[in-house]
Write a structure and sequence with these properties.
Layout: E1 2-7, H1 10-17, E2 27-30, E3 37-40, H2 42-46, H3 55-64, E4 68-70, H4 74-88, E5 94-99, E6 102-106, H5 115-130, E7 134-139, H6 142-154, H7 156-159, E8 162-164, H8 168-177, H9 188-196, H10 202-206, H11 210-228, E9 245-255, H12 258-278, E10 281-292, E11 303-314, H13 317-331, E12 338-350, H14 365-380
Parallel strand pairs: 2-4, 7-8
Antiparallel strand pairs: 1-6, 1-7, 2-3, 5-6, 9-12, 10-11, 10-12
The protein binds a DNA duplex (18 and 18 nucleotides) through residues 30-36, 38, 52-57, 59, 72, 98-102, 184-190, 217-220, 237, 242-250, 253, 293-295, 307, 342, 399.
Length: 420
DNA sequence: TCTGGGGTCCTAGGACCC
DNA sequence: TCTGGGGTCCTAGGACCC
């Protein structure tokens, strides 16, 4: 059996941890640059705040409805996430951290245990130790565990936040109840195609002929169809190391100068380097893209990306910056106002087993240099030591007007308690 | 004025090989 | 009238997820 554990309204719940007066009140959390809504408490959902709602269009509503708005505080969310995951990993040796607020647990060899009880215990311990509310879904496949989790969330009173699909009868009832669009792995396109052939419920989907599913939805759809019928086709996945690393940002305004875009791209490349070194990987391919503001179709639009094979694998920020600028030069065109750029590194090889090339090699001193750089930045703070080609004066700040303190990771921002 | 930032997997089709 | 059959690798783009 699998369990899918999911933190309820995770970012909003994190913001409430140290502001208990916000319990029961509407809370929303905004994306980078305070751009759009990416998390909502139940109360905010009830007020009709949609996921992805642009913040500037909702300012009035936020004020009128007394909605508590926060900028995203990833230092806090990341730390709370790892606390939750640490607790979960006590309950099973096989855990896949699926996202910042979700984990799959595999319960092989737990035949003699009451998994629903284990789920309830997990829920109790996580709530008590972290204050984060969770929902637990238990089922024979990952897709069904996702569905069971949905049931636990939708019917908190009846389920107590924990639901197990552990009999054939419960399985049939669950898949007959939910619409096909509710399924993990069925997005807008598939939903449309399925509805067109008369599929409404998940049960309908499981009854479709296999070749139709294979043809229309590839093997991915076929696997999903089996999973929903209770046949296991997906196992836990190893999520330790990333296969791609992307650093992409919107700019604070339209950039019309090459030099400004170049500075951003260099900075993104150095961050890629940091993340590569963190997981002991080197990359063999780098991709750079730029585009204008797609929300302003009346302005001239331009969008391009280029992918370059590196002459040798590297994770040096300096070398990556150099290749990224190379790439940027190939796609940059004067006369446009650029709003966003990104650097993506791909095709990793382990840092300790680099293939040496005959003519071109990474400068062997780079490794030591980067180690020192990482050490300094760890001690002094992110981006304190930069490349000269980065903007040394400008402290790059995104808009985060409603940022809460980093309560759990910075001593100087720890909660203050006033006693009378 | 103002709209995020990450990821994964799969397929079709082109280019090439024998 | 009429020109095989088997492969691999790469890329772009689609679909999905949080």
């Amino acid at each position: 059996m699998f369990a899918l554990v999911d933190c309820n309204n995770f970012y909003a719940s994190c913001e409430r941890l140290f502001r208990p007066e916000l319990n029961g009140k509407p809370v929303v959390v905004l994306s980078n640059n305070d751009g759009c809504v990416i998390a909502r408490s139940n109360e905010a959902k009830a007020l009709g705040i949609e996921m992805g709602a642009p913040a500037f269009l909702f300012e009035k509503k936020f004020k009128e409805q007394h909605i508590n708005v926060f900028s995203s505080n990833y230092a806090l969310y990341g730390d709370m996430s790892s606390r939750v995951m640490t607790i979960l990993s006590k309950y099973s040796p096989d855990v896949e951290v699926y996202s910042i607020d979700e984990a799959f647990l595999k319960f092989d060899g737990f035949k003699l245990f009451d998994l629903k009880k284990i789920g309830e215990q997990m829920r109790k311990e996580v709530t008590k130790s972290t204050g984060i509310p969770i929902s637990v879904g238990i089922a024979p496949t990952k897709a069904l565990a996702k569905l069971a989790n949905k049931i636990a969330k939708k019917f908190p009173k009846q389920t107590g936040g924990v639901h197990a699909i552990d009999t054939q009868d419960k399985l049939i009832r669950a898949i007959a109840f939910f619409k096909i669009g509710d399924v993990w792995g069925i997005g807008r396109q598939h939903e449309k195609r399925l509805k067109a052939v008369g599929v409404e419920s998940i049960l309908d989907f499981t009854l479709l002929p296999e070749d139709w599913v294979k043809k229309q939805m590839s093997v991915v759809g076929l696997r999903l169809q089996k999973e929903l019928a209770g046949i296991r086709t997906l196992d836990l996945e190893d999520t330790k190391d990333k296969k791609n690393i992307a650093v992409t940002r919107s700019f604070d305004e339209n950039y019309t100068e090459y030099g400004k875009v170049k500075e951003r791209v260099i900075t993104f490349a150095t961050i890629c380097g940091e993340r590569l070194r963190k997981q002991d990987s080197c990359c063999n391919v780098i991709q750079v893209f730029v585009h204008t503001n797609t929300f302003r179709p009346e302005q001239p639009q331009y969008s391009r990306s280029v992918t370059i094979d590196l002459p040798y694998p590297t994770n040096s920020s300096m070398e990556l910056a150099h290749f990224a600028v190379d790439a940027l030069q190939r796609i940059y065109k004067d006369g446009y106002g650029y709003k966003k750029a990104g650097v993506i590194v791909m095709e990793f090889t382990p840092a300790d087993s680099k293939q040496q090339m005959l003519f071109e090699n990474s400068d062997p001193k780079q490794g030591n240099l980067m180690a020192v750089l990482d050490k300094l930045n760890k001690a002094l703070g992110q981006q304190k030591v930069k490349l000269a080609s980065q903007d040394l004066d400008k402290v790059w700040k995104m808009k985060r007007a409603k940022l809460s303190p980093r309560y759990t990771t910075r001593l100087d921002e720890i909660i203050t308690v006033h006693c009378r």
